[in-house]
């Protein structure tokens, strides 16, 4: 698929969910590298940089996107020739896709261990990683009931109930605002993540923080299923995750909004759940408490404190 087409499909959410966005982006970069008409290495690098920026500008919150783009673009600076650079992009992209799919499978195995026979699980949005855990627990013969939210305004819950129904899992579909009233029936909350900060805060679909708060009040455990590339290295520098604000027209039809003089429609697409409301984060490397998020950033994303210190020096120089 063409690069601009992929970017547009991510922007309009035809391709959505942090893992799928990351895989689509690296595949688009590899396709672009194959066809990029560059006369020399410098031109190739700058063409690829522009392509990376087009993809990065599509949606700001899911950190899987910059992490995946970084993984594919990193070898470009070390390449000595144009064929080597082209080849490196293709190899890195293929490796990312393979390891991403493998990570979801590992998360399913590990996450399923934390789901017990007889559990009533609440999930929110449509997360490949969270669903993988639930589907695997069901496949292992555990008797589950799932509550799935609607997920206004884009109704990702419709995708979730379809997947649960296809698997033959007993499912109740609820509107987002019904969460607190049914929380006393829920024995486990399982959600995905778009980003996890160094202090273990989880950025996920709007409404997740409210669900985690209700779960905390009811003493129900909250499990987050997230591949290591959802962890945000730059939060070590104190950078905040940008919360995407989407079009008001997704929330209220324009013909109604137009008649309201004093009303502003807001549409934040994600929110932040503090670490204290998260019990466990299941990654492909194992399950960790949110307090250990830094170890994932250091050990598995390959960013260490020296990298950050160097980055800080560079940032200061650029500001001067
Ligand atoms: O919040 C969303 C999707 O938001 P949107 O629909 O706005 O992209 C998902 O919970 C995470 O991306 C994790 O999904 P996955 O586990 O599939 O990566």
Automatic annotation (TrEMBL):
Check the record and name the InterPro entries matching this protein: IF-2B-related, IF_2B-like_C, Initiation_fac_2B_a/b/d, M1Pi_N, NagB/RpiA_transferase-like, R15Pi
Which reaction(s) does its UniProt entry say it catalyses?
alpha-D-ribose 1,5-bisphosphate = D-ribulose 1,5-bisphosphate
| Gene3D superfamilies (alphabetical) | translation initiation factor eif-2b, domain 1, Translation initiation factor eif-2b, domain 2
What's the EC number here? 5.3.1.29
- Enzyme class, broadest EC rank: isomerase
Question: Mind telling me which PANTHER family this protein's record contains?
Answer: METHYLTHIORIBOSE-1-PHOSPHATE ISOMERASE, RIBOSE 1,5-BISPHOSPHATE ISOMERASE
Q: What does this protein do?
A: Catalyzes the isomerization of ribose 1,5-bisphosphate (R15P) to ribulose 1,5-bisphosphate (RuBP), the CO(2) acceptor and substrate for RubisCO. Functions in an archaeal AMP degradation pathway, together with AMP phosphorylase and RubisCO.
Question: What additional remark is attached to this entry?
Answer: Reaction proceeds via a cis-phosphoenolate intermediate.
Q: Which family does it belong to?
A: Belongs to the eIF-2B alpha/beta/delta subunits family. R15P isomerase subfamily.
Q: What is this protein called?
A: Ribose 1,5-bisphosphate isomerase
Source species, please? Answer: Methanoculleus frigidifontis
